[in-house]
Amino acid sequence: MKSNPNMSLNQYLEKQIQEIRAEVGDKKVLLGISGGVDSTVVAKILHLAIKDQLTCLFINNGLLRLNEEKLVLERFEKYGIKVDYLDASKTFLDSLKGVTNPEEKRKIIGKVFIDCFKAKAKSLGKEYQYLAQGTIYTDVLESKGDKLIKSHHNVGGLPEELGFKLIEPVRELYKDEVRALGKRMGLDNELLLRQPFPGPGLGVRVMGEITEEKLKMAKISDAIFREEIKKAKLDKVIWQYFTVVLDTKSTGVADGKRNYNYVIALRSVVSTDAQKTEAYPIPYAILNKIVERIVLETKCSRVVYDISSKPPGTIEWE
Ligand code: XMP
What is the tally of structural domains in the chain? Predict the structure, then answer.
């Protein structure tokens, strides 16, 4: 880990727990959870340290994967960690109407998230003096001023503005260390080994304006891609794989008729740290099955396969 390369993960965990207890005392902590590995690991560390002094806030931004909200709520119930759930899908999608610029989309998603979070935090009262975040070391690196490539909304001005003190127990860790720590704390493999998912969610995987139609195509195609990759036992091999709904329509044929509809791209990359990646070559027979299902079930006109490395191509398309 960044601060002390000789420290074991057990020692790191113990140190975090002690520091959190000493800092928080009998006050309360609010944590925004996304359902991903980082925030779930932070939730578990905090729950070990301060039990029910922790409240997790789960905001549904309408840009989650198919049935994701249900899965997240069930998982936290199993862990016995309190969750406050806010379905803000409509607010997010209304704010994104007509917006096509990727950075603007990210900024709106970040801002609406902050507005929802603020409103909720205020309603919870003054005993919540701490805000925990699942920021990891890569987020810190990629968000440094002049090197900004894309805005990552979990390193923002939120805590200062709200008068919160910040707790970031995995800020020093790389992704593989966060996963290893989660494993040590008994979190499910299903969660720990899942691929990273960006904060702005499917919002950066629907090119151009986010419409209900494109979003639905993104959800269905992503679910099909994940299902088929799991069936092919490649889900632990590929670092990240997802679909992108393009803002381009092309002509195809469906049920013997002209089908002028959106194009969907498949992206599948291998990496150890998301800084440099290569495309993962999915075997042709599996690709064929995936494409067939996506065309049939989303009614898109065609599917293309992105084999760009990073650099020059970032992992996400926006
Ligand atoms: P890029 O597209 O920059 O992505 O090559 C690198 C890794 O970061 C994820 N990613 C994000 N994660 N908020 C996040 O929490 C974001 O705004 C964001 N943008 C990209 C991406 O999925 C990949 O794993």
Answer: 2
Helix (H) or strand (E) holding 62: none
Query: Which of 192, 225, 248 finishes a domain?
Result: 192
CA dihedral 8, 76, 88, 240 (to 10 degrees): 50
Ligand 1 atom index nearest CA of 196: 24
Least confident of 1-15, 42-56, 64-78, 208-222: 1-15
Task: Say if residue 146's pLDDT is above 60.
Answer: no
Would 3 be classed as within a structural domain?
Answer: no
Helix, strand, coil % in the chain, rounded to nearest 5: 45, 20, 35
Which amino acid is located at 160 in the chain? E
pTM exceeds cut of 0.70: yes
For the chain, strand residue ranges (E) read 28-33, 54-60, 83-87, 128-132, 165-167, 240-254, 257-270, 278-279, 302-306
User: For residues 203 and 109, is the Cβ–Cβ distance under 8 A?
Assistant: yes
Do 181 and 213 lie in one domain? The reply is no
Q: Please, which pLDDT band fits residue 138 given cuts at 50, 70 and 90?
A: confident
Q: Is the CB of 274 under 6 A from ligand 1?
A: yes
Taking a C-beta distance cutoff of 8 angstroms, is the pair 60, 43 a contact? no
Contact 221, 210 (CB under 8 A): no
Helices 175-184 and 37-50, interaxial angle, to 10°? Answer: 40
198 lines ligand 1 (CB under 6 A): yes
Same-domain status, 186 and 103: yes
pLDDT value, residue 275: 87
pLDDT digits (tens, 9 = 90+) for 184-233: 999 999 899 898 899 899 999 999 999 999 999 999 999 999 999 999 99
Ligand 1: distance of its center to the CA of 135 in Å?
12
Q: Which residue among 192, 220, 246 closes a domain?
A: 192
